[in-house]
Amino acid sequence: MDIVLYDRTGNIELKSFLVKGSTKAASHGLPSWQFITIKHSTTTYDRATMKLTSKLNSRSSDPLWAVANVRQCPRRNVSFRKSVLLSTRLSTWYDWPNVMCQKLFYENSSVVNAASYVQSYVELNNVVCPEGRIGPNCLLYCESDAYNYNCKEHVICYEEGCTCPPGFRGENCALSCEKNRYGYGCNQICGSCSKYRMTSSPDTCNKLTGACTAGCTYDEYTLYIPPLCKMYMYKPEPPKIDTVGNTTIQVNVPVEWKDEYKGLLEYAFIISSSTGNTNYTGWKRVFQNMTELTERFTNLESGVIYNIACIFRVCNQYDNMCSNYIQSNWRTAETVCNRTDFVLESEEHSLLIDWKLDPKQPFPCPATWYRIIVQVIGKRTPLLNTTVNHFPYKVSQKLPSYTSFTVTIVHEAKIIFSDDIRTLEEAPSIVLNARSLNAFDRNVTLVWKPPREPNGMIKKYEVTLQVMHIYKLKID
Description:
By secondary structure, the chain is mainly beta. The protein has one helix at 142-145; strands spanning 2-6, 13-18, 49-53, 71-72, 82-83, 99-102, 109-112, 133-134, 140-141, 156-158, 161-163, 168-169, 175-176, 181-182, 188-189, 222-224, 232-234, 240-244, 249-254, 265-273, 278-280, 284-285, 292-297, 305-314, 326-327, 331-334, 341-346, 351-356, 371-376, 384-387, 393-395, 404-411, 414-422, 432-440, 443-449. It is rod-shaped.
């Protein structure tokens, strides 16, 4: 047998060999197979053409030769081989009889059923191949080796038996898997996939790989891990507060590594202030040696309450496809600040509350840190109970004049300042029921009741008499 290897053009001869028939005796009387390796390196985009020419050393009325098991050697340092078998179907179906075939080793033979019926219970130990590839170590490409994109109507045979490519069933592997089933023999059930349909198909996962077509279902307490959405992790614990300063907060979250994360688990933190600002930290990868996740927040405002939560998500190795994220409960922390003192002023119908800021004191507590409570002395119900966003603050509702109030300033349950103050006096209302009782000669008796609203302490009354008429007496 002459073997010649040409370049892709077929014009340049690269290698040539002459293979002679085996001289080793075969006790079984069957022809013996021989092996030959052609060593020639090619690039990824190059290819070579092989020409085989059979020759006989002597005349024969019944010559026999065959070529089979043509293999493409893998790249250097790779131990896999790709076996390519090309065939042409001339009829739709033919039931071949059992035949005796010789193996590649001497004195060994076995019966191969050429009409190997497909079995759905064949157990395969090979890895799950990506879509468009099948066979041992996923070395066969459906499009180039099986001439369709999904290997439909092709049977895969192993020592354990024959089965359909993943996603197909039936005697000749022409039927797709039933709804929400996938894989070899359609034995796998789709995971916790989202019910949202991206296509008209009723399936929620890919029939070949089992990957959820619209991602995993959303659950507030459970994060399903794509693409199969069968593995999951529970809601993380709320962050624990490590340290709190004037402008910093440090937190940590315990984490327990599981093999199914495979280095694809990521985490981040959310921090939201009572002033309405919300920020996210960047996503970071969780590694196998981690037992807790630590985050330090800086450049915060002093005396402000912050809510902090931890979130997890799972991404693929390229970080271009990620799951929904699952969030822990919130943990509250307040940055440290330095409180100040207050001063009170009063008017007839209002009170003015101001703080005494010391410019030399750093990190003063903001106005929102304080709560103001104003109540009339002797009454239990507060007239005012509120927080403010600035000082000085004027209690603007019309307060009764010459009335004593207690002003208390607190933070949470702690009293920061408390003092009594009274609104100023103003003119009282008119006296009631003023009248004269009798008037004799030069004496007049006047009586009245005090005003209903004295608006202060009445120390004396002043009476002014004005002559309205003068009557003259005529004496005869």
